[in-house]
Amino acid sequence: xxxxxxxxxxxxxxxxxxxxxxxxxxxxxxxxxxxxxxxxxxxxxxxxxxxxxxxxxxxxxxxxxxxxxxxxxxxxxxxxxxxxxxxxxxxxxxxx
Length: 96
Known about the structure:
Blueprint (H helix, E strand, L loop, with lengths): L1 H94 L1
């Protein structure tokens, strides 16, 4: 009777071992999938960061161009105002 009990205990342990092995393989596969996904996410983040850096550089360039354009506009308006004043002074000299 004791041998039969031991055989049954062995069989139960073998079944549990099989189930644990199956569960372990499932978890290992899941870890591999998650590791792959993390690596892919890192690559995506790097690509997006590169895009952001390029966009920031382009925005800085546009900002500089806008600032230069504004300076030119201000200079042009100053010249126009000086010319207008000069023309008005000549006109008023002739009128008077």
